[in-house]
Amino acid sequence: MTVYMTVYMTIYIMTVYIRTVYMTIYIMTVYIMTVYMTVYIMTLYMTIYIMTVYINCAKQPMCPRMKSDTDMVKCTCCPFLLQVIEEYVSGGMCGYDREGSPIWYDIIGPLDPKGLLLSATKQDFLKSKIRHTEMMQRECRRQSEKLGKNVEAISLIYDCEGLGLKHIWKPAIETYGERNYPEGLKQVFLIKAPKMFPMAYNLIKHFLCEETRRKINVLGSNWQEVLRQHIDPDQLPVAYGGTRTDPDGDPRCRTMINYGGTVPRSYYVQDSVKVEYDGSVTVSRGSVFQLEYDVTAASSLLRWQFASDGADIGFGVYRRTKKGGGQKVAEMLQVLPSERYNAHLVPEDSCLTCTEPGVCDLRSDCTFRNALKHCKQMSVTHRYLRKSDMTQS
Asked: Which residue spans adopt a coiled-coil conformation according to this UniProt entry (predicted)?
């Protein structure tokens, strides 16, 4: 009897143990699948979001920051395009479609958005996008003269291979959302997208306007064949189904298309640059920190340096149009329109050359939508240098 009970209990315990192991494996499998699907859905959402931003931004007029008819002209205290942007922002122009429109390639997978925004300001990154846009505009004008017809739009090939969680980073998505593209996007070819992307796109495309839907082409496994229907093989890199190579035979045409990569930590500004600020202030949610400078002579210089703690901060420069105090910001002249700066990632350092005298307000604010609930600590330095001081120095 004792032997029987021992065997029975042993079998029972083993059965319970096996069931426990099985349930553990089952729960872990469900958990992993849930995490996987969450990441997958977020990736699809981000892809669709960026695609929509590209199309919508293509309808916008030129960004006001690029206009030159303001009362003050912005100068740059550091090189206009930093080396890290030149080397690690992926994409490039290569070839023309069958109608003669330039083709721009956006290579998403190798892009390191976090490394870029830790190595250069968001504004530097956006300036590079504006520079690329202006370059494509000039190329459209050259094609119009060469072909004897109006070429005013480009084709965009959006390579999604390698799209992943690293691209779903809030500051990067906000940067993509900046509207800095002029009119001129003819069509978008989205290639190498996740397998579930076409199904997800079919669900949300009905929320897009007809013009936007008409421009987006989500291609499947036959994407190379479809591209060749719109682009001659000799204008399409070998890596994308054509016959074009670099002079050295590179099938990816790296002399024209930058494939980016992971940004080395040696480029990270916070790890390599230490700034000593004059003081610090706290900007509460919904409030503004304002400094006034009475610019007494034309060609004087305003310079500012600031860093924020924990989150981005708004900043802009305005010139008063009336004498005396009490003028509302909406009535002032926008010299540098207020923007959100990722100063918690990369300290801001810039300047303005004043072409006219007047009272200027430097405004740091936390009034924008989605501002964090906690206060933002700012370390700041401002300088006002008169023309006479600059002449003497």
From this structure: none
